[in-house]
C-alpha cells in the first residue's frame, strides 16, 4: 500500500511517500500545486493520499487527488484510535491533531508530551489510554523576535543565532537573542517539568522546524532520558489515518 501524505504548514509544506508504514521519500516545498503532485504520480503507483492544511482550503488539490487515487479527507472528526476530548474540535489545528495521532503510533500506551517547535510552539499531551484533552500554543522563536521589533520604537529586528548559549547578552542585539533563546527554553522545560511531575513514565516527542535547537539543549538537561526527536511526526500521523481506514 503506497500512500502520498501532504502536510501544508504555515511556512512551508511537506510531501512524503510511505510504503505501508515505512517512509520512502520526502520533500519540502513552499507551495503544493497540481504540477508538484503530478510528478509523484508519474514516478510511483500511488494507492492512497491524504492532505492536512493549516493555511488554506485544499479543495482543488483534493479534487485532483480524488481523480487519481483513493483520497482521505483529514479533519478533527477523524478518530484514528484517539479519544478526543477537545471542546471545540473544529477549531483544533490539524497539524496538532496529526502529531497526536503520530505520537500514539510511535509511542503506543505511553504518556506523551508533543512539542512542535515551528512558527508557534505547541504543547499537546496524550495519555497512555489515548485520551487527548488539549494543549497550549505559544509564539515561536521568529515570532518573538519580530514582535519585539514591531511593538517597540527602537528595538531592531535581529536574526536568531542558534549557536547563542549565554545567560545574558552584552549589547542590544545579543540581549534580544538571549531573552528569546533563554526564555523559550525556560518555558519548554517548565512545561516538561509540570507534566513529568504529574504523569509517570512521561516521554517527550520533539518535532518542527526549530526542533534541533531544543533537542541540543534538552539533551543536556535532566530530561535527557525522556526526550526523543521525530521530525516527521505529523506525516506519520497522517499516514496512520490511512491505515486506520484500511484495517
From TrEMBL:
Give the location in the cell: Cytoplasm
Domain of life assignment: Bacteria
User: Cofactor note from UniProt?
Assistant: A monovalent cation. Ammonium or potassium.
Question: Quick one: which pathway?
Answer: Cofactor biosynthesis; coenzyme A biosynthesis; CoA from (R)-pantothenate: step 1/5
Entry GO CC:
cytoplasm
A family per Pfam = Pan_kinase
Cofactors needed by this protein, per the record, are: K(+); NH4(+)
Chain positions recorded as K(+) binding sites: 116
A single Gene Ontology MF term assigned here is: metal ion binding
Write down the InterPro entries for this protein, in alphabetical order.
ATPase_NBD, Type_III_PanK
* Protein family: Belongs to the type III pantothenate kinase family.
What NCBIfam families does the record point to? baf
Protein name listed in UniProt: Type III pantothenate kinase
What's the source species for this entry?
Arcticibacter tournemirensis
Amino acid at each position: 500500500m503506497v500512500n502520498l501524505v501532504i502536510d501544508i504548514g504555515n511556512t512551508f509544506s511537506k510531501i512524503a511517500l510511505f510504503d505501508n508504514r515505512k517512509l520512502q521519500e520526502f520533500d519540502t516545498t513552499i507551495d503544493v500545486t497540481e504540477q508538484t503532485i503530478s510528478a509523484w504520480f508519474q514516478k510511483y503507483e500511488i494507492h492512497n493520499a491524504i492532505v492536512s492544511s493549516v493555511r488554506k482550503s485544499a479543495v482543488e488539490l483534493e479534487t485532483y487527488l480524488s481523480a487519481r487515487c483513493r483520497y482521505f479527507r483529514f479533519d478533527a472528526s477523524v478518530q484514528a484510535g484517539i479519544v478526543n476530548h477537545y471542546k471545540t474540535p473544529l477549531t483544533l489545528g490539524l497539524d496538532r491533531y496529526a502529531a497526536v495521532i503520530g505520537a500514539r503510533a510511535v509511542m503506543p500506551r505511553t504518556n506523551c508530551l508533543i512539542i512542535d517547535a515551528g512558527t508557534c510552539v505547541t504543547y499537546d499531551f496524550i495519555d497512555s489510554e489515548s485520551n487527548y484533552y488539549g494543549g497550549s500554543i505559544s509564539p515561536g522563536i521568529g515570532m518573538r523576535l519580530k514582535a519585539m521589533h514591531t511593538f517597540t520604537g527602537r528595538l531592531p529586528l535581529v536574526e536568531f543565532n542558534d549557536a547563542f548559549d549565554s545567560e545574558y547578552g552584552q549589547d542590544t542585539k545579543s540581549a534580544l537573542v538571549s531573552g528569546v533563546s533563554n526564555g523559550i527554553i525556560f518555558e519548554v522545560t517548565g512545561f516538561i517539568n509540570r507534566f513529568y511531575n504529574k504523569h509517570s513514565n512521561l516521554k517527550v516527542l520533539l518535532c518542527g522546524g526549530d526542533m534541533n535547537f531544543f533537542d541540543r539543549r534538552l539533551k543536556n538537561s535532566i530530561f535527557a532520558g525522556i526526550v526523543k526527536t521525530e521530525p516527521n511526526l505529523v506525516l506519520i500521523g497522517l499516514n496512520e489515518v490511512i491505515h486506520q481506514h484500511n484495517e
